[in-house]
Amino acid sequence: MRCFECGGDIVEKDVSFVMYTKDKKPIFFEDVCAGVCVQCGEKYLDGHTLERIGNILEEGDREITKRVSVPVASMACAHH
Ligand SMILES: [Zn+2]
């Protein structure tokens, strides 16, 4: 398989990312098995994985295995 964006090689990797439920609650997905382009970093998720993510976003709390609090660095533009 080749990257649709740049034609680079796709390698299988565990990736982490945040998605939002319908009511705008963030869910952090960790160690999701995905194909990642070695050149541009584009992520490819297979149909089964996308379906599970969809279900988790629909079901919300039922699929949550743990909760973490994440330190947030605020980097907004300074308005003086
Ligand atoms: Zn690429």
Written description of the protein model:
This protein has a domain of 54 residues: Ubiquitin-like (UB roll). The chain contains 1 helix and 3 strands; from the N terminus they run βββα. It has 80 residues and is an alpha+beta fold. The mean pLDDT is 87. It is extended and about 45 Å long. It has a 3-stranded antiparallel β-sheet, covered by helices on one side. A hairpin with a 5-residue loop joins strand 2 and strand 3. Zinc ion (ZN) binds next to loops. The site of zinc ion has 8 residues, from loops.
Order of helices and strands: EEEH
End-to-end span in angstroms? 50 Å
Helix content: 10-25%
Q: Unreliable runs, pLDDT <50, ≥5 residues?
A: none
What's the shape?
A: extended
Q: In the CATH classification, which architecture of the domain at 10-63 applies?
A: Roll
How many β strands by DSSP?
A: 3
Q: Average pLDDT, to the nearest integer?
A: 87
Rounded to the nearest angstrom, the radius of gyration is 16 Å
Major sheet attributes? 3 strands, antiparallel
Structural class, by secondary structure, is alpha+beta
Structure keywords:
single chain, 80 residues, alpha+beta, Ubiquitin-like (UB roll), 3-stranded antiparallel beta sheet, 1 helix, 16% helix, binds zinc ion
Topology, pairings included?
Elements: E1 10-20, E2 26-37, E3 43-44, H1 47-59
Antiparallel strand pairs: 1-2, 2-3
The protein binds zinc ion.
Zinc ion (ZN) binds at residues 3, 5-6, 8, 37, 39-40, 42.
